Sequence to fold (895 residues):
Amino acid sequence: MKIGRNEFKMEKRATLSGWEAARISILAIIFALTLLSLLFILADVNPLIAYREIFSYAFFNPFGLPLTINRSIFLLLCTFAFIIPYKAGLWNIGMTGQLFAGSICAFAVVVALGGKEFSASPSPWLLIPLMLIAVILGGGALGAIAGFLKGRFNVNEIVTTMMLNFITFWLISFLIKEGGPFMKSGGEGQSFELPKSIFAPLIKGVPFTIIIAIGLAVLIYYLFAKTKIGYEIKAYGLSPAAARYAGIRISMIPLLAFILGGAIAGLAGYHYFAAVPGLYKIPKNYGEFGDLAFYGIICGLISQGNPLAAIPVALLFGGMSAGGRFVQGQLHMNFGVDYALLGVLMISLVAFQFFYRYKFERTQTNPDKERIDVGVHR
Amino acid sequence: MIMVLGGAKRGEMVLEARGITKRFPGVLANDQIDFEIKAGEIHAILGENGAGKTTLMNILFGLLHPEEGEIHIRGERVKFKSPLDAINMGIGMVHQHRKLVSAHSAIENIILGHPSAGFILNVKKAEEEVQELCDRYGFKVDLRAKIWQLSEGEKQAVEILKALYRGAEILILDEPNSALTPQETEKLLESIEAMARDDLAIVPFITHKLPIVLGISHRVTVLRRGKVVACLETSRATEQSLAMQMVGREVIFRIEKTTVERGKPILQVENLSALSDKGFQALSDVSFTICEGEIFGLAGISGNGQQELVEVLAGIRNVHKGKVTLDGQDITHASSLDRWRRGIGYIPADRINVGSIPDFSLVENTAMNYFFDDRYSQHGIVDYKNMRKLTEEVIAEYGVAAPGPDTKAKNLSGGNLQKLILARVLSRNPRLVIADLPCQGLDVGATEFVQNKLMEAKKGKAGVLLISEDLDEILSMSDWVAVIYEGKFMGILPTGQAKKENVGAMMAGLSLKDNVT
Fold:
């Protein structure tokens, strides 16, 4: 392609360093924000003011920042729930179902130990660990169904995880609504509140689940970088036939990947319904958390399955969804800024992954014929 | 009616390529290549894997665009935007990996995409015309048969007929004689010569099987590392000289077969049967023994149960009936990993999809046969540092041409990939080596290397099961020859008593008794 004296040429990249990938992602974010500013202009809002409001609320406001952090932790856990099966070449679309299944188990534990009674104050030393085990088992078990069917009978995991989402969605509905075992006394279509004694401990106002999330990031990174089981999962993910040749038990890998993924999604359920201050229940609008969980897929894809890279991505998405919702009310916008932001960011980040594989080179048809890079894309 | 004979007359220049250059990231695939062919000529292009043959072929067929250089057809300069342009200019391509619709009949495949095939197909008329082509050039194909029912040779004939029916005057044949039996090859050569007599220009691209090139072609162009290193009349070339040009050094054709004293039995297979993926009996009642220091060659056309046999021995397919013992221990139901540990080393036929993981680095690919080994992983942690050292060692020892151990396997050429797989498997010092089509698709140099390494394994007292479609390879390498046909062994005989014709007939389904004269 020729523009003036410049000739542009598309070339395939042989390698891509982590920094190049990060630079491309930042460009994609800038591109998305520029694109979205058109929407603000159409709505008669100065985009610079809108973005200032969004970012300052999301990252500097005493009310906004905790919201951002809580959403980010949730997103991060959902991302990990996606990443592990993704490394095995499998698509976990069932984080929603898995986190609901985990939450159901955790609340069932509370009910079983009498925590639902008014004025009960069960011991946190017993109940919190039990709830954590329950979410892990519940989420893992739901994941196991999809993993087992995939490994043993080669049933498409996208379909099974998706269908399990619906089952758990309606199961929760049954449990928390009128007459359900988790019903709040007096109805209201939401679950009972957890007794104060088993509120998850906070670290400077942030639920301790942040430690779980960051610890898992390191652990998952280590799993795939060093361990034998990580090697087996990666090998299966890239080529099941080659994995079978190498002696890996290939029916076990999907099962394992989905148990791990489901268990982590269960922790995401624990985080939002039992650890975020001010909630401590399964609310009426629990479906919205299910929707947010799907952004784990996006974060996982953008971070290319790297759990450490997923941290800033989840933080960005968490912040944008919190800040977007805030400016919508603040500036009296008539459209859903939060999901518009997330949507445009997602499309832009995914589209820019093109530059992970290709780069543009500019050659100036100067007499000296020197090759100059477009700078940013290298 | 037939458009076989285009405008070009015998001896007229039909295709001329000048200064063709094509780069890929980090590789100069074609460097100033000149090539020409006249009507009625058979002009072979020879080269090792990675010499730039495929690139050139794709450029001539319009799949790739050269960065420099020109192509002239019948004196007219052309620029192909797509293969359709090439087809319309009279170029026909016969792919090595057949591009046919297997659920359709031969004739349906032939008229697929033909300009005269409009909304309503006149199959009958087309069939008559194609039949005429068949008779003229000696192709024996049932045009009404479905593609999946045809043999490799028949499928190839269908591809050639398709090109001819489209009016091709220049026929590009990609590895025309791979996967054919000796008899089928013979017939193919006759057909090629008949077509050349009708003033077709024919360009076979060949990596191995030099004698065939010498037998029928008029001229040969040899490529090495993207450049033309020789272009000469075939009458002035010898097998040795061509091989030397291709490889860039002298090649010894006769592999030196060393006899090793026959040791104790390693592998004993008794009345083994197995089912195919579709549940048919793919292997029935096979029995044989492989001892220390011997190569057991298994000849046969692909798809006669070899793959099932190999997979059963490697532990990735269940035994239906029968018994397998390794060094006297029953391993009939042992897992694949267990067999690796006990000393079975398996070199799969499909090195890209089974034998390696293209997106893995060479270190990770080496780990495929070592990740379970206590020397390279303890307590579930893989010792990648040590694994890297091992990879560097085997790369050096086996001469794998790669920038380094962190290169991805997909960047290796076929020969280098096979060397890596070989290195990985043989460095484990296996008791039994299962080599499934180890030299398929490899160039002369790499084939020689692989064969020597298998010979070395034999000298080291390993037993080797060698599966090949190439009779010459089987006969020159093995101590025993067995022939498999439709899942049954047609006979097992010492190589000394095996004649090429007999084995060839057995490959086609005649039992040993029937064809010994």
